[in-house]
Amino acid sequence: MLKTLQRRSLSNDGPIETAPKFELKPPPYPLNALEPIISQQTLEYHWGKHHRAYVDNLNKQIAGTDLEGKSLEEIIVISYNKGDILPAFNNAAQAWNHEFFWESIKPGGGGKPSGDLLKQIERDFGSFEKLIDELKIAATTQFGSGWAWLAYKENRLDVGNAENPLASEADKKLIVVKSPNAVNPLVWGYYPLLTIDVWEHAYYLDFQNRRPDYISHFLEKLVSWEAVSSRLEQAKVLIAEKEKEDERKKREEEEELLTGGSRAQVYPYSDAEGIVE
Ligand SMILES: [Fe+2]
């Protein structure tokens, strides 16, 4: 995700001061590479102006605050503040969402995934076509500005930060969700795999008010299922590491409890021997 760089600036006194700064990363293809579906003009505005403004504003907004020096993901989760959104949230989440969006698509994308990803889709949605239907519904019915997502949800029904974590969903499965404005599934503890930007700035120059057409073209011709597949693999690795760590902590606590328990039995014995006052 967005890299934190060291910003170098000369103060009037001479010494170089440094402060963390997020960098605007370009899409991994030329700005005209998504034509004719998404025009170069759209990319020039969408990436060159909108995305840039989120990153620039975030850097200004967090300078000198407690959020400076934190990762972008940390800033997003902290500033979401259980739905009672703090000022930095919108720029932070939009900076993250857009970089993730550019890397969700590629020239000559679309088609159908294969391998483990396809198996997982078929297990969780019944078929690839049903997943596409769900994504289309989420993206077209998001009222106003926002995002549609495919995400992976681990075994966590007690997501502390969630305003509405859809707690009735089964565990460790793919889900489709939509989110308003800048909100993304990181705030619910999900692992985002794919996103569709349904802000008007994403499609209006090319499709005007025909959002459903934009979504169909996006899914049929642009999605990088390779990116989705590698994100799913990463999510599973991270979850497995986390579970291993949780297991290790649990074992340590149990051992601690056991040791504490034997001590409790030693003391009365020592006491009886007159060793302890
Ligand atoms: Fe956007």
UniProtKB/TrEMBL annotation:
GO terms for molecular function: metal ion binding; superoxide dismutase activity. Residues 1-22, 243-277 are annotated as: Disordered. Its main location: plastid. Keywords: Chloroplast, Iron, Metal-binding, Oxidoreductase, Plastid. Residues 21-105 form the Manganese/iron superoxide dismutase N-terminal domain. Pfam families: Sod_Fe_C, Sod_Fe_N. It is found in: Plastid, Chloroplast. One of its GO terms (cellular component) is chloroplast nucleoid. Residues 243-252 have a biased composition (Basic and acidic residues). The keyword Chloroplast applies. Its cofactor is Fe cation. It catalyses: 2 superoxide + 2 H(+) = H2O2 + O2. GO terms for biological process: response to light stimulus. The keyword Metal-binding applies. Its EC number is 1.15.1.1. It is an enzyme of class 1 (oxidoreductase). Transmembrane segments: none annotated. Residues 113-164, 167-231 form the Manganese/iron superoxide dismutase C-terminal domain. Belongs to the iron/manganese superoxide dismutase family. This is superoxide dismutase. It comes from Lupinus angustifolius (Narrow-leaved blue lupine).
